[in-house]
Design a protein that fits this description.
Keywords: Cell membrane, Membrane, Transmembrane, Transmembrane helix. One of its GO terms (cellular component) is plasma membrane. It is a multi-pass membrane protein. InterPro entries: PG_synth_SpoVB, Poly_Biosynth_Transport, Polysacc_synth. This is Polysaccharide biosynthesis protein. The protein is mostly helical. Among the domains are: about 1-235, no CATH class; about 445-515, no CATH class. Helix content is about 85%, strand content about 0%. It has 24 helices and no strands. It has helices at about 1-15, 20-65, 70-95, 95-105, 110-115, 125-135, 140-165, 170-180, 180-200, 215-235, 235-255, 260-270, 270-285, 290-300, 300-330, 330-340, 345-350, 355-370, 375-400, 400-425, 435-465, 470-495, 500, 510-515. Helix 2 runs antiparallel to helix 10, helix 5 (about 110-115) runs parallel beside helix 8 (about 170-180) and helix 6 (about 125-135) packs antiparallel against helix 7 (about 140-165). It is globular, with a radius of gyration of 24 Å. The two termini are about 30 Å apart. Mean pLDDT is about 85; it is low at about 520-524.
Length: about 525
């Protein structure tokens, strides 16, 4: 629960800060930042989700056997391994900055890439200290360090970009200052972890060999298992990285001017906060069920594994579908509320379909990792990256940034199909009944009718001189509340969720009381 709450806070911060940042630097400044951001996203996934998990597993095994010195040896040799990995990443990104920026089609990005390369040097202390404390069942140090890292980073981004632009610096300089937030945030997290470690007075690296007997096995586990878990966590970042490599370059080589291409890419990048917020809403609930799947699997209760997997999938589909369809309906007022105008709303509407597929992929990956199948999700996600790159090359010259949105949705759809195939092969059953989908679409249709009715009033007010951004904010927020209420009312009335299943949703007890009062369609 501690780690889940910390992850929720950091993901919300990561999604929300982009909105004021875009308002400060505009679409071109947002393009500049988003081009380089995936490097930080990779470093964050490595130091938060991948390597700490594997280190904590190995430390926990030592602690369970009463081998405290062995736990320290795991931490010490992991530090050396990850120090080497971090240095390799740093050198590759720093030295390759000119080549990467040229590949992206914008050589001015090279200094920003060099700045972000420094974040890989913090990989070893962040991963090892988080993993060590987690392995000893001490989750607070990791949670506090994650929140501190993201908070310091967000403050650095917003303050530096505001100050640099106020002093007349270029948008590229503002982007460089914003990316420096990854360094200040990482250093803040390291300081927090060091203070927690010092308070335990364990002397973590005192008198410990960094190359103990059997260190090769530890390094192998970090390389294989850590990388597999990291890849699943990096799904959206890897897709962003592909877009950074060829969206702008493809636009400029097919007749779009440089400034116009930067603006178009910046508008397209507005989709990132949408997909992050939508995905967090669904997965923060569905993934809390994964530990139940793991427990049932370890106890050999296959029927319970299927039941909990089905529950996680139901909730993921339910919330992912509702969030996606609702956002598509109110995209114009939401886009205007957050980013000052409605530019690119059609592109963002298509891009928002990614929310639904991302929710399913993250839930499927969590279930498969929970039952020990960590390599399949990683393999199928890696297989999707070249597909995304190739489809970008095919569609962007024809459809512009709409092609990038379509390629993202297509890639995520293919990855989802692969994971569905794996789940059906493992469990040998249809996880969701056709009647569930029928009720889902009926609820979605009802929500759409109501929201489109609201939009008629929204358009009427705008044509009669209402303030565009204030009116957009009002209708976007009202649309979220009304749309969610209508969808849940219709779906609960269909009776496809039991009281136990509803209890996993926010305000589950209130919804159960509502469900009981819905009349004859209620089914126990």
């Amino acid at each position: 629960m501690i780690l889940t709450m910390a992850a929720l806070v950091t993901k919300l911060l990561s999604a929300v800060y982009r909105i004021p940042f875009q308002n400060i630097v505009g679409d071109i400044g947002f393009y500049i930042y988003q081009q380089v951001y995936p490097f930080y996203g990779i470093a964050l996934a490595l130091s938060t989700y991948g390597f700490p998990v594997i280190i904590s597993k190995m430390v926990a095994e030592k602690v369970d056997r009463g081998d405290q010195e062995g736990a320290k040896k795991v931490a010490a040799t992991s530090f050396i391994f990850l120090l080497l990995v971090g240095v390799i990443w740093f050198v590759a990104v720093y030295a390759g900055a000119d080549m990467i920026s040229t590949w992206m089609g914008d050589p001015q990005l090279a200094p920003l890439i060099r700045v972000i390369s420094l974040s890989f040097l913090l990989l070893a202390p962040l991963s090892v200290l988080r993993g060590y404390h987690q392995g000893k069942e001490q989750m607070v140090p990791t949670a506090v360090s994650q929140v501190a890292e993201q908070s310091i980073r967000v403050v650095t981004i917003l303050v530096s970009s505001t100050v640099l632009l106020a002093k007349g610096n270029s948008l590229y300089a503002a982007g460089q200052g914003a990316l420096f937030g990854s360094i200040t945030g990482g250093l803040g997290a390291v300081i927090v972890l060091v203070l927690f470690t010092a308070a335990k007075q364990e002397g973590l690296f005192t008198g410990i060999s960094f190359f103990p007997k059997g260190f090769g096995g530890i390094w192998t586990a970090l390389m294989k298992d850590g990388t597999a878990i990291c890849v699943s966590a990096m799904l959206l970042v890897l897709l962003q990285f592909v877009d950074s490599l060829n969206v702008y370059a493809l636009l400029t080589t097919h007749g779009v001017g440089q400034e116009a291409a930067k603006t178009l890419k910046g508008v397209y990048d507005r989709g990132q906060p949408f997909i992050q917020l939508g995905t967090v809403a669904a997965t923060s609930i569905s993934l809390t069920i994964v530990p139940l799947v793991t427990t049932a699997y370890l106890k050999g209760k296959q029927e319970l594994v299927r039941d909990y997997s089905q529950l996680a999938l139901k909730i993921s589909i339910l919330i992912g579908f509702a969030a996606t369809l609702g956002l598509v309906n109110i995209m114009v007022p939401t886009n205007t509320m957050l980013f000052e105008n409605a530019d690119g709303s059609s592109v963002l509407s298509v891009f928002s379909l990614s929310i639904f597929f991302s929710c399913l992929i993250l839930t499927f990956s969590g279930i498969l990792q929970g039952i020990g199948r960590i390599y399949f999700p990683a393999a199928i996600i890696i297989g999707g990256i070249p597909i995304k790159y190739i489809v970008n090359m095919l569609l962007i010259p024809v459809f512009g940034v709409m092609g990038a949105s379509l390629s993202t949705v297509l890639t995520l759809g293919l990855i989802t199909i692969g994971l569905v195939w794996k789940m059906k092969r493992l469990f040998g059953i249809s996880l969701i009944t056709p009647s569930f989908y029928k009720s889902l679409f009926i609820s979605g249709a009802g929500m759409t009718l109501v929201l489109q009715g609201l939009l008629l009033g929204y358009r009427w007010l705008l044509t009669n001189g209402a303030h565009e951004r204030m009116t957009s904010a009002l209708f976007a927020l009202v649309g979220v509340a009304v749309g969610a209420g209508v969808f849940l009312f219709l779906f609960l009335r269909a009776g496809h969720l039991s009281e136990e299943e509803i209890s996993f949703l926010p305000f589950g007890s209130k919804m159960n009381r509502l469900k009981k009062g819905l009349g004859p369609r209620y089914r126990k």
